[in-house]
Amino acid sequence: MKTTRHATYNLNYHIVWLPKYRNSVLKGEVADRVRTILHEIADDKGLEILDLTVQPDHIHLFVSSPPKHAPSLLANWFKGISSRKYNHRYANHNGEKIGWARGYYAGTAGHVSSETVMNYIQRHEEDNS
Q: Could you tell me how many helices (H) and strands (E) the chain has, helices first?
């Protein structure tokens, strides 16, 4: 359990999002850089990353957050800040920018099946076809 001045909480979210056009760009050095940036965002916002998996075509983030932050805010922070930081720091090195697809999956950690996540990814792939 964690506490703030006015709350005791155990809120853990599973957030999944995809690169724009579901391109498999999150490999090697790019994945390492994105992973580092996501940890920086969590530190800056007072969040705890419980688990982070960067796959070539999507990101799974398990994050603990105080109740004052809505899951939509968390997704917007991680997606928006990470693309801006990555593009500011690294786009000049190789000319490639990181962009995220619209939308995301959010659920409470521990209560999501891999089938639910795969359905989200497949639906998103169909939407971009």
A: 3, 6
Q: Which two tokens stand for residue 55?
A: 């796959």
Q: How far apart are CA 18 and CA 107, in angstroms?
A: 16
Task: Pick the closest to residue 129 from 34, 22, 38, 31 (CA basis).
Answer: 22
User: What does the block give as tokens for 79?
Assistant: 């997606």
Of the candidates 29, 128, 108, the residue with the CA atom closest to the CA atom of residue 63: 108
Report the candidate in 124, 127, 99 with the shortest Cα–Cα distance to residue 26.
Answer: 99
Buried b (16+ CB within 10 A) or exposed e, 27-42: eeebbebbbebbeebb
Token pair for 68: 């004052």
Among this protein's residues, is 21 annotated catalytic?
no
Strand partners, 49: 63
In order along the chain (129 residues), what is the average pLDDT of each group of 10 residues? 80 94 90 97 96 94 94 98 94 81 87 66 65
Sign of CA dihedral 127, 62, 9, 41: negative
